[in-house]
Specification:
Helices cover 30% and strands 28% of the residues. It is of the alpha+beta class and 71 residues long. It has one domain. A 3-stranded antiparallel β-sheet has the order 1-2-3, with no helix packed on it. The radius of gyration is 21 Å and the shape is elongated.
Length: 71
């Protein structure tokens, strides 16, 4: 993991097309501005985890007949 120190108004680049700018900082949070191409998906990590959990919960249950056959 790369760890950087930035101040409000400063930014960093990821590749050539993604810029992350520090908009504001406070003792318990940082406000970021992200500029990326439209085809790059940008999500909060906790939102992606929720999406993954919902997909797993919505997956069809295993076929009982197949489960019995495997026994």
């Amino acid at each position: 993991m790369l760890v950087l120190t930035r101040r409000p108004g400063e930014s960093l680049l990821i590749g050539e097309e993604i810029e992350v700018k520090i908009i504001e900082s406070a003792p318990d949070r940082v406000k970021l501005g992200i500029t990326a191409p439209n085809d790059v998906r940008v999500l909060r990590k906790e939102l992606q985890q929720t999406i993954d959990e919902n997909r797993q919960a919505a997956a069809p249950a295993p076929n009982l007949k197949n489960l019995l056959h495997d026994l």
